[in-house]
Amino acid sequence: MRFRFIVSETGKGLARNFAMSVSVVLVSFVSLLFVGASALLQTQISTMKGDWYDKVEVSVYMCPAASSASTCSGGEATQEQIDAVEGLINSDALKPYVKSYTVESKAEAYDNFMKAYGGSRIGRNATESMMPVSFRIKLVDAEKYQVVVEQLTGRDGVERVHDQRKTLEPFFLVMNRASWITAGLAAIMGLTAVLLITTTIRLSAMSRSKETEIMRLVGASNFFIQLPFMLEGVIAALIGALAAVGTLWAGVHFLVQRWLASSIAFTTAFINAGDVMRLAPWLILTAVVLAAVSSSFSLSKYTRV
Question: Are residues 79 and 205 in the same domain?
């Protein structure tokens, strides 16, 4: 009997405040959509970092025949200088940081250069003698690239040391900032949802003040009086959370997996629908807890003695 009464009162409250309930659904949907998008963006950043940083190389270019670098004042790198750099790469100082390395000869550098630029003016003017010998170093931990770079930079015969991670970091910086902006918008929308839920429940409690007074007179507990009102907010927020989860799943499945993953020029790992499903319980729990706490707070004035 009590359960039926609570369900009936909850339904009446949702019907009476239909427009406000829809507003709670929409605001909850938008706020949790931003929260989910921010979390998924951070997951994507972590996934791409793990994937791309495994492929990061430190490239050491020895002095070519003509170079204006201060370390190339003696002209083209000699075999002794090349051997010295290779010895340093194999030394105990760098062994913990170097996973593997390859040496690209002048002939190999010329072949690779012609494959990339052979049809251009610069390619037609290039010769094998202009190409530098280079080392391509794979790192054990890409986060510690600076140790290798510092050891190899400025040595006689080394024109320059290039770390691919420097190219990737600005990209990840932009993505991280986008994630923080999304999180900020989510926080604003979350506050809006809390205020709207609080207002909706207060209006509902005020419109049924006579009913709650009668229930109090016949001995109903505060919890029993408050429960239908709290369920109004929880149900509305829950619907918004489920809609946000569905939208995130559709976005990841259709936009990321089917479109972005197949159309992007380079190979990388992307988030998938499984990441959304792992995030879904937390979004739903957040919606329920926020709605329940907001409703309980707003009811303290209107349903207690």
Answer: no
